[in-house]
Design brief:
440 residues, alpha+beta, seven-stranded mixed sheet, two-stranded antiparallel ribbon, binds flavin-adenine dinucleotide
Length: 440
Amino acid sequence: MLEGASTPGGGMRSAELTLPGFVHDVCSSVYAMVVCSPFLRELPLDKHGLQWVFPTAPLAHPLDDGTAVMLHHSLDETAHSLGADGDGYRRLMGDLVARWQDLLQDAFAPPGIPKHPFFFAKFGMRAIRPATSLARSYFQTERGRALFAGLAAHSILPLEKLTTSAVALILAVAGHAAGWPFARGGSQQLTAALVKYIESLGGRVLTNCYVESLEQLPPARAILLDVTPRQLIRMAGAKLPGSYRRNLEQFKYGPGVYKLDWALHQPVPWRATECAQAGTVHLGGTLEEICESERQPWKGKVSDRPYVLFTQASLFDGSRAPAGKHTAWGYCHVPNGFSGNVAEAIEKQVERFAPGFRECIAGRSVMGPAEMERHNPNLIGGDIGGGAAYLNQLFLRPTASLYRTPLDGVFLCSSSTPPAPGVHGMCGYFAAEAALKRFA
Ligand SMILES: Cc1cc2nc3c(=O)[nH]c(=O)nc-3n(C[C@H](O)[C@H](O)[C@H](O)COP(=O)(O)OP(=O)(O)OC[C@H]3O[C@@H](n4cnc5c(N)ncnc54)[C@H](O)[C@@H]3O)c2cc1C
């Protein structure tokens, strides 16, 4: 494996971004998709040093009335926390949670005939709908709708768009099925375990090997490229046939992210104290407010009250910070390539639900889209999804030939291929399958 950066991991790296002794996950932090992945969950990563840390609850969603809606591991407990919307939650999630392995086998796959067609069709009828529509039909209260909107906003799409419900459903199912864990010691530990596993199989990972052009690569029967379409065009030069190249050129990138990492003197002083039980906290208030926030980046703007995805790993993993101190990260979606500053708006959102937060800050790191792309060339304009995941780029991604390219033996394996972004390993799994099929 040739890695351009000086440390392996891509979106799974950690570093002392703020102060000595504070370990921050530079990109991904919450690994619901790893522990649910039909491929990754089978790997013996624990034998290579990986330890999972499961927060008491996967998710909290605080509201302005000082309470929080909780996504608990237990579906019943979650339904109970939703009060009048408990029945709606059971109707929406019950069958999906009961058969989560069947569901994820089909959901984490390229387009094709599902293994469980009737069950998957039942999921599909809900998943295809815009999150706004599904939330309003299953939930009557602000609490249920807000919880669903926060989950759906991980899609990085306006929540009025088709398929935004899919992301919400899958994340909630994952929370009930397996949890939303952190890697003990930071996301780099997940990478370290994967590298050790590759080495145990005879592979090697070479860092500081940035590949400018395919010409640089040693002869190989199969080459799997973990890059997005724009990078493939650059690397392949004139070798790509015109029609395929044009299709790649038409591939659209989505909004970027603007991320803050904090070193904290003390835990976040949440007004809704139950937020301290959760590894992830969604800061955006009501469905309407989150919808407004998620529409803005697509119009080249950022909401004054941006929806912030927030994590607090050190509450559950003491190795992340010096004794008694803490770490947290929070990011919001901004227009692709955005060059403005929304650090203040992000901290205001945290402060809204945790008055006194600012006084807890000992150090901060700020990364806008440009810093994100410098950290990892796959984050084009700060897009963390390898390209927008709207309907016509969700299934046939990045082109109808998916992992295969017109160059014999050259395959794409990044999150620009199905089943799209997130740390689940399935893009690589299916790219490897395509390569094996070619040489069978
Ligand atoms: C701020 C942020 C938070 C996130 N949070 C989560 C989360 O909590 N949970 C989750 O599941 N996902 C999360 N994600 C998304 C997740 O990180 C990505 O979906 C995932 O890492 C994509 O994997 P990938 O293999 O496609 O690409 P990457 O992980 O981006 O890896 C691509 C690798 O290829 C290398 N590379 C690129 N070009 C070249 C070249 N020419 N030569 C050599 N090497 C090259 C890069 O250096 C990089 O190491 C987050 C992402 C970000 C940025």
